[in-house]
C-alpha cells in the first residue's frame, strides 16, 4: 500500500471473473495487482475451461488440430507447442492424442470425462503455482471463490495455495473497515453446472453469511450470480434446444431473485458479480453499487473493475479491459 493511500486509509481492489481456462487472462489477473498498484485481488469464479481441443498425431512428424473451426496442420514440436499455447489462451485444454484414441472416444464418450478432469486440475495447479511465485512477498492479498462451472475438486487446490485465500461461504476482513462475503453458487441454469441450487437454498447460503457480518454498511458482496433484473443479468433467451431466440437479440433477466432480495434488505456498500459474460455494466440497488465487469476470455482480454474503498464509501471505480 502506498504511503498516500495509507495516510488516507484507502484500499484499492481489482476484481475480475469468468476467465474460463484462459491462461493469458489468469496471468493478467495475477499481474493486475502490481500493474494497478492494488492491495487486493478478487476472482469472482469460473476459473476453469469448458472443453478439450485434441492435437491428433498424423504420422511423419505432423499433427492436426481444429481450434474455433479453423484447421491447422502442425509440423514438428515447435509448432505443436505454439498451438498448445494458443489453445490455452483461448480457454481450452490441449490434449495430444492419436487417431486410434479419437476413434475409441467416439465409441465410448465416457472415456473423455476423466481426461478432462485431470487436465482441469493439472492446469489449476500450475496456475496456483504461478500465483504463489508472483504474489509472494508483495503484500497483495488474493481471494478466490470458485464459480458454478468449477468442479468441487478445485476447492482443495485453492486452499492449498499459500498466496491465495479461498473465500467461498465465508466472511473475510479486507481491511480495518471492510468485510466481504463470497459465493460462486447460482440459481439453476439450462446447463446443470456444478454449483447450482434453488432460490430457497441460495437464500439460506446468503443468510448464513450475512448473519456473521459486523458492519453491513461497509460490506462487499462478492456473489458470482448478479441480482435478478438488475441490468447486470441480461442474457439471450433460449429455445427448448438451447439455441438463442432471434439470433440472440431477445434478452431476458437470468439473475437470482434471492440475491436481489438480499441486496434490497441489507444494502451493503458494494456488489461484485459475473456469470453473464456479455453484460458488462454497473447499477445501483438502493445505496449499493453493483458491478459486472463482463468477460472476454476467448479473445484473451481480461475485463475487470478497479475500486478504491474508503471508510463508509467507495471513493472511485472504473471498469478496465486489456
What does this structure look like?
- The chain has 2 domains: 10-50 and 116-321, Purple Acid Phosphatase, chain A, domain 2, CATH 3.60.21; 52-108, no CATH class.
- The two termini are 23 Å apart.
- It is 30% helix and 28% strand.
- The radius of gyration is 21 Å and the shape is globular.
- With 322 residues, the chain is of the alpha/beta class.
- The chain has helices at residues 3-8, 23-35, 76-89, 99-107, 112-135, 153-160, 199-210, 257-266; strands at residues 11-16, 40-43, 52-59, 62-67, 70-75, 93-98, 141-144, 165-166, 171-173, 179-183, 220-223, 234-236, 251-253, 270-272, 281-285, 288-292, 303-310, 313-321.
- The chain has a 6-stranded mixed β-sheet with strand order 8-7-2-1-17-18. Strands 9-10-11-14-16-15 form a 6-stranded mixed β-sheet, covered by helices on one side.
- This is Metallophosphoesterase.
Amino acid at each position: 500500500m502506498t504511503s498516500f493511500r495509507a495516510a488516507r486509509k484507502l484500499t484499492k481492489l481489482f476484481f475480475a471473473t469468468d476467465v474460463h481456462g484462459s491462461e493469458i487472462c489468469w496471468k493478467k489477473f495475477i499481474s493486475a495487482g502490481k500493474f494497478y498498484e492494488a492491495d487486493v485481488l478478487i476472482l469472482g469464479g469460473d476459473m476453469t475451461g469448458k472443453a478439450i481441443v485434441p492435437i491428433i498425431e498424423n504420422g511423419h512428424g505432423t499433427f492436426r488440430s481444429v481450434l474455433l473451426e479453423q484447421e491447422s496442420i502442425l509440423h514438428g514440436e515447435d509448432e505443436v507447442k505454439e498451438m498448445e499455447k494458443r489453445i490455452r489462451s483461448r480457454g481450452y485444454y490441449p490434449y495430444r492424442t492419436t487417431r486410434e484414441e479419437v476413434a475409441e472416444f467416439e465409441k465410448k464418450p465416457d472415456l473423455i470425462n476423466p481426461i478432462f478432469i485431470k487436465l482441469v486440475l493439472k492446469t489449476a495447479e500450475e496456475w496456483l503455482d504461478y500465483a504463489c511465485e508472483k504474489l509472494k512477498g508483495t503484500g497483495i492479498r488474493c481471494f478466490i471463490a470458485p464459480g458454478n462451472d468449477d468442479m468441487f475438486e478445485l476447492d482443495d487446490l485453492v486452499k492449498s495455495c499459500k498466496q491465495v485465500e479461498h473465500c467461498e461461504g465465508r466472511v473475510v476482513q479486507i481491511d480495518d473497515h471492510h468485510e466481504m462475503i463470497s459465493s460462486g453458487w447460482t440459481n439453476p441454469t439450462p446447463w446443470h453446472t456444478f454449483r447450482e441450487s434453488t432460490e430457497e437454498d441460495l437464500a439460506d447460503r446468503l443468510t448464513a453469511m450475512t448473519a456473521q457480518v459486523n458492519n453491513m454498511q461497509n460490506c462487499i458482496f462478492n456473489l458470482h450470480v448478479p441480482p435478478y433484473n438488475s441490468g447486470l443479468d441480461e442474457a439471450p433467451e433460449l429455445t427448448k434446444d438451447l439455441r438463442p431466440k432471434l439470433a440472440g437479440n431477445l434478452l431476458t433477466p437470468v439473475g437470482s431473485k434471492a440475491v436481489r432480495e438480499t441486496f434490497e434488505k441489507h444494502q451493503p456498500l458494494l456488489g461484485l458479480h459475473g456469470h453473464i459474460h456479455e453484460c458488462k455494466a454497473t447499477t445501483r440497488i438502493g445505496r449499493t453499487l453493483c458491478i459486472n465487469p463482463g468477460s472476454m476470455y476467448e479473445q484473451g482480454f481480461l475485463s475487470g473493475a478497479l475500486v478504491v474503498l474508503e471508510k463508509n464509501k467507495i471513493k472511485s471505480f472504473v471498469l478496465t479491459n486489456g
